[in-house]
Please model this.
Amino acid sequence: NPSDPTKPATPWRATYLRLQSMVTLPVPQGILLNVQVRARANGVNGNFGPVCRMIVDDGAAACPTTTLIQDTNNPFFSCGVSRVFGAGDVIAAQPVPGANRYRFRFEQIGDAFVRVIAKPSYALILNWSTLPLTPGADYNVFVQVSFDGGANYCPYGAPCVVSIINPGGPSDNDGDGYTSDVDCDDDNDTVFPGNPEICGDGLDNNCDG
Model:
């Protein structure tokens, strides 16, 4: 909002909109909306950008969902990964501001096994004694958060698959679907066998040497 008196008079001031400032025809609750944005410079409007979708839901905003971290550039990337159980391997959820309890739910794919563990941290070390995870099994992992120490929890977010591998076995650290025994750079998800080669980037994109 370029007229917001609480912000410095810079171009960045116009890059956001406070929804509560829309008194006439306010944004409705619970309706999925298409949103486009365009810039205005020197009195001239630019073209609208691509459509994004949003929904105003005060209830969901007060008790948000979260998932395991899906950003491959994040050092705690945990969605679609392989991990060793019983050592020091970690999975991590996307942190939620104000949350003080994270509950992880493991559902073994193709089996009725379920394990639920709650921790005060968004990071979970895969090492416990009761109902351990099984090497060679894949798990759908859900996460939910609490703001009152676990007395009440928000809904679970979308699941991510975590594969448990044998200690010393090949891992897939970058989550590109190729384990370290065939992936020539298992810390870079743009490098794997069969990937198109990009000339001049200094990488062996397709692992052909």
